Amino acid sequence: xxxxxxxxxxxxxxxxxxxxxxxxxxxxxxxxxxxxxxxxxxxxxxxxxxxxxxxxxxxxxxxxxxxxxxxxxxxxxxxxxxxxxxxxxxxxxxxxxxxxxxxxxxxxxxxxxxxxxxxxxxxxxxxxxxxxxxxxxxxxxxxxxxxxxxxxxxxxxxxxxxxxxxxxxxxxxxxxxxxxxxxxxxxxxxxxxxxxxxxxxxxxxxxxxxxxxxxxxxxxxxxxxxxxxxxxxxxxxxxxxxxxxxxxxxxxxxxxxxxxxxxxxxxxxxxxxxxxxxxxxxxxxxxxxxxxxxxxxxxxx
Length: 301
Fold this sequence. Notes:
Blueprint: H1 3-20, E1 82-92, H2 95-108, E2 112-119, E3 128-136, H3 140-148, E4 152-162, H4 164-189, H5 194-226, E5 227-236, H6 248-298
Parallel strand pairs: 1-5
Antiparallel strand pairs: 1-4, 2-3, 3-5
Helix pairs in contact: 4-5
């Protein structure tokens, strides 16, 4: 009988140790046992926030987050760098007079003229003109609408090229090189001997040269993005804008006209060169006679 209390004590100790081997298990009246920090599937433990989620938005992933400014980290279309180029062909009554109208429209939009060619009418060649317009990109649509009012539009062709990635790469390289240049300038002021100073100066010259080259590229791309390049062709009324023939007979007619034009150009070129050829021939004849007379005098009798 004295062994019963000892056995009971051992059993009680075993039960207590077993209970301690499951840390954090609750045996309250709720009838459930839950470990702190763990939750059943689909249930978020109150008072905890999952990594990458904002308070009040349990389970929100990092990919679906928005930044404090409301952006998602993507580049907005209005912030992309796009180069726009194009060609516009218009038939007008007087191409030479319309050139000044096109220049005025472009300059009023804040643009400029990069090139300008005027071809006045000749005997068999109607007047025409060609301009290269640089138009601010944000004014392109309005300016094109005004240019179309000059006459009858033959065609309009526009092309857009997105260079956002290229400009971002250039900006990153420029920033990195500028940092390197600043560090080298700081090292130059702290150089203690001539050898170190020369080494720093050589490295600095190399970095600055590369930096200036990248900055020039960036400035060029910025100009191309800020100003669209439009080639404007102005033709006289009654003439056809040169283009691809529509059918076989049009191709023959175009080829025949091209042949006549080439022959006419060749005849004009020959007429222009003929006086020079005659003068050169006369000089050559005189030189030949002088050489021949000199040889005769040297010949023994």
